[in-house]
Specification:
A seven-stranded mixed sheet has the order 6-5-4-7-10-13-14. The radius of gyration is 20 Å and the shape is globular. The model has no long low-confidence stretch (mean pLDDT 97). The chain is built from eleven helices and 14 strands. The chain is α/β, with parallel strands linked by helices. The longest helix has 31 residues. It folds into two domains: 132 residues, Up-down Bundle (Four Helix Bundle (Hemerythrin (Met), subunit A)); 203 residues, 3-Layer(aba) Sandwich (Rossmann fold). Strand 1 and strand 2 form a beta hairpin. The structure holds 5-S-methyl-1-O-phosphono-5-thio-D-ribulose. The site of 5-S-methyl-1-O-phosphono-5-thio-D-ribulose has 18 residues, from helix 2 and strand 9.
Length: 347
């Protein structure tokens, strides 16, 4: 592993994050205090990736109420709910955001008979538990994932499901980091991941910083490296897994799954149980975030490269059909098809 700081953590009365919009050029830590600062950090992808935004929101909702220790329960709870709804509206697709905030609310309600300062203390403990569990969950995903991979394999990954998407190990990168410690000699292909380039800016950066053998490719080169026999497995993360196994992840994941099937390459989703949403029956129930056109037409270019006023469609995620997925690597083991039973059993 590289010696990058944790992606997200509680430090005193601040949420400390690595500002991911500045990577790979600059590793800068931001210290955020207000719910507005934390909302915009999530919305603007300064902190991003499903597990990391869940942890950030849990810490954020604690910080949003920490100063209300003199309030009576009803007033305190009202303020908590307002902050929770606000933070939950920062991004729609990753279920970890609402999962973490719901868990914080459950802790508050469980302790409702206590005095407000003690409730605040319990909220702090819960946020820290969500933080530390993320580290353990990712390690376990790494152990289960590594069992599926042959030494010397080429592994293709998309977007950033690395340490920068979680607190420390990442999900899809956890088997890669463990494999590196154990001499597996993986060769990783990182898709650049248009339009926000999380693969190029973040995955290639963090793997290279850790000394992993990584090659950056454009998204439209994935078919070629698969056809050339360079890829033995595809590993990606996920933002929300529906009850039937349909899975939302960064736009472009669906295309990779179709290609992997064509070239008979196993396609695994690394899925902490916090990304499984049994309330979404199928992928059709998952709300897909649409982002600004400028991410496609202007960002990263010295001058705008698309015609003025051109119509743009910019969905940030797609849904991979369950039938294209070879298995879910979770912290409790690997789930194989049929997914309905396996996912329900795990939850
Ligand atoms: O828009 P982002 O950068 O937050 O999207 C992130 C992804 O799609 C990741 O692959 C996903 O959150 C899984 S991270 C374990």
């Amino acid at each position: 592993m590289s010696n990058l700081p944790d992606t997200v953590r509680l430090d005193g009365d601040c949420l400390e994050i690595i500002d991911q919009t500045l990577l790979p050029g600059q590793v800068k830590l931001l210290r955020l205090r207000t719910k507005e600062e934390i909302y915009y950090a999530i919305r603007l992808l300064k902190v991003r990736g499903a597990p990391a935004i869940g942890v950030a929101a849990a810490i954020g909702v604690y910080l949003a109420v920490v100063e209300f220790e003199n309030k009576k329960f009803d007033d305190f709870y009202d303020r908590f709910v307002l902050a929770k709804l606000y933070l939950n509206s920062a991004r729609p697709t990753a279920v970890n955001l609402s999962w973490a905030l719901d868990r914080m609310e459950a802790s508050l309600l469980k302790n409702r008979e206590l005095a407000t300062p003690q409730i605040i203390n319990a909220l702090r403990e819960e946020a820290l538990a969500i933080w530390s569990e993320d580290i353990e969950v990712c390690r376990r995903i790494g152990e289960y994932g590594l069992k599926l991979l042959e030494k010397g394999s080429g592994i293709l990954t998309h977007c950033n499901a690395g340490r920068l998407c979680a607190v420390r190990y990442g999900t899809a990168t956890a088997p890669l980091y463990l494999g590196q410690e154990r001499g597996y000699n993986f060769h990783v292909y990182a898709d650049e991941t248009r339009p926000l380039l999380q693969g190029a800016r973040l995955t290639a950066f963090e793997l290279a910083a850790a000394g992993v053998d990584v090659t950056l490719i454009c998204d439209n080169m994935a078919a070629t490296v698969m056809k050339q026999g360079r890829v033995q497995a595809v590993l990606t993360g996920c933002d929300r897994v529906a009850a039937n196994g349909d899975t939302a992840n960064k736009i472009g994941t669906l295309g990779l799954a179709v290609l992997a099937k064509r070239y008979k390459i196993p396609f695994y989703i690394c899925a902490p149980s916090s990304t499984i949403d049994l309330n979404s029956a199928t992928g059709a129930d998952i709300k897909i975030e649409e982002r600004d056109a400028e991410e496609i037409t202007e960002m990263w270019y010295r001058e705008r490269m698309a015609p003025d006023k051109i119509s743009v469609y910019n969905p940030a995620f797609d849904v991979t059909d369950a039938e294209l997925i070879s298995g879910f690597i979770t912290e409790h083991g690997v789930i194989s098809a049929p997914y309905g039973n396996g996912l329900r059993g795990l939850m």
